[in-house]
Amino acid sequence: MNEAVLNVDENQMPAVGLGLWKLDKADCADVVRGAIEIGYRHLDSAADYGNEEEVGAGIKQALADGLCQRKDLWITSKLWNTFHRPEHVREACEKTLADLGVDYLDLYLIHFPISLKYVGIDTRYPPEWIANPDADNPVMEIDPVPLADTWRAMEALVADGLVKQIGICNYTTGLLHDLMAYAKIKPAMLQIESHPYLTQEALIRTANDYGIAVTAFSPLAALSYVELDMATTSDTVLSQAAVLAAAKRVDRSPAQVVLRWGIQRGTAIIPKSSKLARLKENLALFDFELNGDEMTAISALNANRRFNDPGAFCEGAFNTCLLYTSPSPRD
Q: Is 118 known to be catalytic?
């Protein structure tokens, strides 16, 4: 794949976006404006990231400075777990629109196939995972809402003009098959964790067979999770021999090689950085190409290693087991 865009139904989404997860509030507006100035047109946000007001401030400044028009941007956000009940879906979307300062979203995703007890916006926002953070023994509280009910409310957002397209995150192949059995509006996008340690080839193929585009989050694997103590520096994919050999041949950084691998697989990618030089580097992926042997060698690094797995972190952090993916061979 040598194009800088990914076809999403009849629309074109920039294949490289700016991931906004863990972007510090104090830096967020300047980073977003700066990213737009150097060419980013795809912003990947979410209510749970807790920085959508600051993202909105950056967008507003970029538009005021004439760097682009709203129609030039692709803005994605996500419905958090506590808003899965149909009567709360529009409320959540409208809050995101207000915080981002835009009239519509290009794409709105169900963040996780996990429904949690509703927490009102005036009570705590973003609600995060725990229902009762001040309790002696904080826990998550599941709210048994069928995903079909949530999807119908997502479809209503399209009909009402709040969002252009809808999709899902963190779905399995089984959940995809189920969704396609009842969806009146087909999901435009599946966003999943994917990188050389977690290639997810069958899931990506299943999505593509349904005509659903795929975005890979955490495309550089462990780098997103070291600061959260969910990985260590020894988990990096950037020092793998296959990556280093390709980087030497194409005269690019190991990170660029791994990101290019993601693009050539046909997925969009949403790397995150607050550093201008790294932001520029992450965009510079379309004037070189990995050969077939390099693609195969990097794909062979797959170990089904998932870093962002509620089935792992929820039990340890919130006393709740939410294993919704198949255990990997490491387990």
A: no
Residue written as token pair 């192949």:
173
State how far the Cα of 277 lies from the Cα of 281, in Å rounded to an integer: 6
Six-digit token pair at 188?
Answer: 């435009």
pLDDT confidence of residue 305: 85
Residue with tokens 């290019």: 260
| Dihedrals phi, psi of 330, to nearest 5 degrees | -70, -25
Q: Give tens-digit pLDDT for 36-66.
A: 999 999 999 999 999 999 999 999 999 999 9
Can you tell me the distance from the alpha carbon of 314 to that of 130, in angstroms, rounded to the nearest whole number? 10
The residue annotated as part of the active site, out of 40, 49, 108, 197, is 49
Residue 296 pairs with which residues in a beta bridge? none
What would the two tokens of residue 207 be?
Answer: 């999505």
For residue 53 the two structure tokens come to 């007001």
* DSSP H/E element including 275: none
Buried b (16+ CB within 10 A) or exposed e, 253-276: bbbbbbbbbbbbbebbbbbbbbee
In whole angstroms, give the CA distance from residue 331 to residue 188: 32
Q: Please report the beta strands in the chain, taking only residues with DSSP state E, as ranges in sequence order.
A: 5-8, 11-14, 18-19, 42-44, 74-79, 105-110, 163-169, 189-193, 213-217, 268-269
The pLDDT of 71-80, averaged and rounded, is 97
Structure tokens at 98: 């207000």
Distance of CA 254 to the CA centre of its chain: 22
Tell me the pairing of strands 163-169 and 189-193.
parallel
With 0.90 as the threshold, say if the pTM is over it: yes
What are the distances in angstroms from CA 175 to CA 38, 167, 187, 207, 313? Answer: 38, 12, 12, 11, 21
pLDDT at 290 over 70: yes
Q: How confident is the model at residue 320 (pLDDT cuts 50, 70, 90)?
A: low
Q: What is the DSSP letter of 13?
A: E
pLDDT digits (tens, 9 = 90+) for 178-188: 999 999 999 99
pLDDT over 60 at 317, yes or no: no
